[in-house]
Amino acid sequence: MADLANLPDDGQPRQFPVITDRVDAWTGYDAEPIGAVYVKREKGSDTVEALSATCPHAGCFVEMDKESKCFRCPCHNSAFTLDGGIVAPSPSPRPMDSLECQIDKSGSILVKWQNFYTGIEEKVARP
Ligand code: FES
């Protein structure tokens, strides 16, 4: 998705699309966007953290509010810290969903994309 060398270590989340081939009944779609992730790297760190951009409340797309330094969901006004924590009061029952990520030997950032059930306190992956 991106190289560690190209992700500034300034603690600012950057948005990346999740793109894959998919089949809808008998129609195939190549390289379709199916979601997005926010990835950030702290100062001097060689590791990254990733959050799903899907709101845990009802699945809308969470946007970054650079002015307020937080994430906001436009659907029902949930707000989250840049670490994904809930800013109360919030209709979201849980923080933003973190995603597993690793850096491979070539320095590429690999994020394991997953969808989770919305509207519940527990983070439960959809099959
Ligand atoms: S879907 Fe995000 S606040 Fe409701």
Order of helices and strands: EEEEEEEEEEE
Q: Domains counted in the coordinates: how many? A: 2
Please state roughly what percent of the residues sit in beta strands, choosing from under 5%, 5-15%, 15-25%, 25-35%, 35-45% or over 45%: 35-45%
Bound molecules: FE2/S2 (inorganic) cluster
Give the oligomeric state. single chain
> Percent range for helical residues?
under 10%
Structural class by SSE content: mainly beta
The biggest beta sheet is recorded as: 4 strands, antiparallel
- What is the averaged pLDDT score? 94
Q: What spatial form do the alpha-carbon principal axes imply?
A: globular
Radius of gyration: 15 Å
Outline the low-pLDDT stretches.
Answer: none
Query: What's the end-to-end separation, in Å?
Result: 23 Å
Instruction: Count every beta strand, where a strand is a DSSP E run of 2 or more residues.
Output: 11
Q: Number of helix segments? A: 0
Q: What strand line-up does the widest sheet have?
A: 2-3-4-9
What would your notes on this structure say?
The protein has 127 residues and is an all-beta fold. It folds into two domains: 1-54 and 97-115, no CATH class; 62-96, no CATH class. Helices cover 0% and strands 39% of the residues. The chain has no helices and eleven strands. The chain has strands at residues 2-3, 14-24, 27-40, 49-52, 63-65, 70-72, 79-80, 86-87, 98-99, 101-103, 108-111. The strands form three sheets. A four-stranded antiparallel beta sheet has the order 2-3-4-9, with no helix packed on it. A four-stranded antiparallel beta sheet has the order 5-6-7-8, with no helix packed on it. A three-stranded antiparallel beta sheet has the order 1-11-10, with no helix packed on it. A hairpin with an 8-residue loop joins strand 3 (27-40) and strand 4 (49-52). It is globular and about 40 Å long. Residues 55, 57-60, 73, 75-76, 78, 91-92 line the site of FE2/S2 (inorganic) cluster.
